[in-house]
Design brief:
This protein has helices at 2-11, 43-53, 57-68, 86-89, 93-101, 130-141, 443-452; strands spanning 168-170, 184-190, 198-206, 213-221, 235-237, 249-253, 260-261, 266-270, 275-282, 296-301, 308-312, 315-316, 327-328, 342-343, 347-357, 367-375, 380-388, 396-401, 412-413, 423-424, 429-438, 459-460, 471-479. The chain has 481 residues and is α+β, with helices and mostly antiparallel strands.
Length: 481
């Protein structure tokens, strides 16, 4: 992994070397509130008539909810209400139609646009098909009939937010309590007690207190540097990074994230004796105290050495131009002195653009892009990521999130064989364009400012939730070495 150590200083600016993410607690998408599927009077007669002419809950709607909705909308899920039973779902019929027709539910950010067609479809695409959209709409329009319970599919059993086949679950020995009005970054040292090299094939982070946990990044600490930093409570302050040498990223979590399950022939190597450092970004939001948090990380290991390794990098958050034309690029509202990262107050549609050139220090056999994640904060509304081939040529769009949602952040993996994934070659240029809305018309920003009794101000690059970022996290596939 020497090549990755050489690449990392160029790929990651100081601001995103560790604190790559900041995500709001809880789902920020509009909830499926109100809007029932008709009144209660004559409900049985209405159900009987509609059952003859259109979809019913048990036969047609319940399978859709199981497939697309119940991972969140269930008892113990992250959504504010359940959509498991007919009694729970019927009052939401009208809202389900509205939210799905508008593309707000299920949450899915990576979409094709007039300026971006990704190279492949996405794995585990949560979006509804045209037929499923029509079924929900027709069901709501017909009064949301229940139909015959004998038509119901078998109930789905969900783990309590768990990784299938988990081999290890690690957690801090002592719960942590945060508070105040400033974001905090705490690192927790975890020991997987590995005696041989293991290959992480799946990960999931389970936040203990969703009210204050905004993101988590799990790093490797191969040299045990964290043991010199940790205090009596088992934690240490780590704004700006895990503060350990040769760190690699094992897992990333933000609201909306699902368990990461890699193909059987892909894994992340972790050497024996390696410690893990779980960095958590806490956003207490002005509360004097908060409930204790015990966030856990789950790991699944491959049975044997995989054919490919997967690494996660962080690229972006450049505060200034760099040599060779990389770094922060000139943009609107820059001062005469040159480019600066600043989103002016009360400005909508402001953009910041960045560029990074792939170095020559790549492993033999090349690198391919397995998946990718975009990241901004509350002011962000749109992010586009492109790859320009070495030597020139038209850039290809890797991903765009035209309706960036601070509350739903996830990796998007290409649905293609490894040998067909987008190649990354020395001299290629990665282009980032982040668009911001720093006005009270931005609902996410307005809610945060109202909670803190603050007004709109200029926003600059930083780690606080009310600062901004422009960074991508590519997942890179390389041949095992």
């Amino acid at each position: 992994m020497e090549w990755l150590a050489r690449v990392a200083p160029f790929a990651v600016s100081p601001l995103c070397a560790a604190a790559l993410l900041a995500a709001c607690s809880g789902a920020s998408n509009p909830s499926l509130a109100g809007g029932g599927g008709g009144g209660d009077s004559d409900a049985s007669a209405s159900d009987a008539r509609a059952a003859l002419t259109g979809p019913t809950f048990h036969k047609d709607v319940e399978p859709i909810l199981q497939k697309h909705c119940q991972t969140c909308h269930r008892q113990g899920g992250i959504a504010p209400f359940a959509l498991v039973t007919y009694a729970q779902s019927r009052p939401m019929g009208g809202s389900m139609k509205d939210q799905t027709q508008r593309g707000l539910m299920p949450p899915w950010g990576a979409v094709s646009t007039s300026e971006c067609t990704p190279p492949f479809a996405w794995k585990n695409d949560a979006r509804l098909s045209a037929a499923e959209l029509a079924t929900l709409a027709s069901w709501a329009d017909n009064g949301a009939p229940e139909g015959d319970s004998k038509d119901a599919p078998p109930p789905v059993t969900f783990g309590a937010g768990t990784l299938p086949g988990v081999n290890a679950e690690l957690a801090p020995a002592t719960p942590y309590v945060t508070g105040g009005d400033r974001d905090q970054f705490r690192c927790f040292v975890l020991d997987p007690k590995l005696t041989t090299t293991r290959y992480v094939n799946g990960t999931f982070v389970l936040p203990g207190n969703a009210k204050v946990v905004h993101h988590a990044v799990v790093f490797t600490d191969p040299k045990g540097d964290s043991k010199k930093l940790v205090g009596p409570d088992g934690t240490y302050e780590c704004a700006g990074g895990a503060r350990v040498t040769d760190a690699g990223v094992v897992a990333v979590w933000a609201p909306g994230a699902l368990p990461v399950e890699l193909p059987a022939n892909v894994g992340y190597p972790v050497a024996p004796g390696t410690l893990l450092v779980m960095q958590i970004h806490y956003h207490p939001g002005g509360a004097p105290t908060a409930d204790p948090d015990t966030t856990k990380v789950q790991l699944r290991f491959a049975d044997q050495k995989p054919e490919y390794y997967l690494f996660t990098a962080g690229i972006g958050n450049f505060a200034a131009p760099m040599s060779g034309g990389d770094g922060l690029l000139p943009g609107p509202d820059d001062p005469a002195s040159g480019p600066e990262f600043r989103v002016p107050a009360n400005k909508k549609g402001h953009t910041e653009s960045m560029q990074w050139t792939v170095p020559t220090t790549l492993p033999k056999g090349g690198v391919r892009l397995y998946g990718i994640m975009a990241h901004m904060h509350l002011v962000g509304v749109d992010m586009k990521i492109e790859l320009e081939p070495a030597g020139g040529g038209a850039p290809s769009c890797l991903m765009q999130e035209p309706h960036w949602d601070f509350g739903w952040q996830r990796f998007y993996a290409y649905d293609a064989p490894i040998e067909q994934l987008p190649p990354i070659a020395p001299g290629d240029k990665l282009h980032l364009r982040c668009t911001y809305d720093n006005t009270m018309g931005n609902a996410h920003l307005a809610a945060e400012l109202a909670a803190q009794h603050k007004e709109v101000t200029d926003v600059r690059l930083g780690e606080q939730t009310t600062d901004e970022m422009c960074v991508t996290l590519p997942q890179l596939i390389v041949k095992a070495f």
